[in-house]
Structure formats: structure tokens, C-alpha cells
Please model this.
Amino acid sequence: MKKLVLVLIAIVLVIYADRSLAAKKGQPAKPRPGNLVVYYFHGDFRCPSCLKIEQYTKESVEGNFKAKIKSGQIVFGAINVDKKENAHYVQDYQLYTKSVIVSLVKNGKQIKWKNLTKVWEHLNNKPGFLSYIKDEVGQYLKEL
Model:
């Protein structure tokens, strides 16, 4: 999980460094292709159900979209909203519990997002859970 967070940070730094360098040279930054971010938001307390949601979400995304992850079109990240620097996500995504959010980003701007609330309904049905995540992410991929 630490590696994933580091990868996400590295991606953001590369994007901003590229744009800053282009701006300094008086050239417009190169437009970035769209991508999809799948977040799992949790708090400090991690119950067995919460850990299962993260595990199943990661398994579905990584198992079904390997090439898209490798190309950077899909990014998965687990974020602790109890940390001060991440608290804004609670308002940004209207979070009220542990949640999986799919966010469509084009040219560095979030276009739309969805809270996959049915993860709780599928929690005790692993095949159903994996399929639900795959289907929802697949729907958003059509818009890239």
C-alpha cells in the first residue's frame, strides 16, 4: 500500500513538474490523456469489513485492468481521511463511511465521479463484489 501511495505522489509530481517547466519556457504544457482514479477511502480504525472492501476493490481493479494500470490510465489508491492532509476528501466526495470512489479525470480536471455504495451490499459475495467493481470501472473507461 505504501508503494501505491508513493506511485500516486510520483505521478502527480511528474505532471506538475512537466507543466511548470513548460510554463517557464513560455510553452503550453502538453495535454495529458484522461485517466480514471479508483479510490478507497478509510479512517484510522480498520475493521475486517473495511479491510475486505479495500482488498476486493484492489483485486478487481488490478485483476481486470492490468494494461490500463500499467499505462497509467487507471490509478488505484487507498487514502486515510483521518489524516489532516486528506480530510478534504470527506467534503469533496460527501463521504459518510468507508467508500470506493471512481473519478474520471481529463486534462488534469475531474469531470465526474461516483460513490460505489453497493460495495457494502456485495461484501459477503466476493464474485458479485469483483463484478460490480469491474462493471463500474468499465463504464467510466468508455468515457476516456
Notes: The beta strands are 35-42, 74-80, 99-106, 109-115. DSSP finds five helices and four strands in the chain.
